[in-house]
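For the sake of transparency, this paper describes our internal protein records without simplification. An entry from our holdings is shown next, in its original layout:
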Amino acid sequence: MHIDKELDTRGLNCPLPILKAKKALAEMTSGQLLRVVSTDSGSTRDFMAFSKQTGNELVEQLNEGGDFIHVLKRR
């Protein structure tokens, strides 16, 4: 999977990871992938809701050693 942009939002709590992702996606073109790394356990459901609300596809969500990784595809 080719990631076009990556955001490290470790240490930030809701809603900051979502706000930073929204800003990053606005700067990307359709079809590009954004990878967001977070330590906020609530980010999993937050990114699910964000994806549904914005129409950006949630391609993948992983939990790796305390990091929550979300991959979004720009609509």
Remarks:
- The chain has a mean pLDDT of 97.
- The first strand starts at residue 5 and ends at 8.
- The beta strands are 5-8, 33-38, 57-64, 67-73.
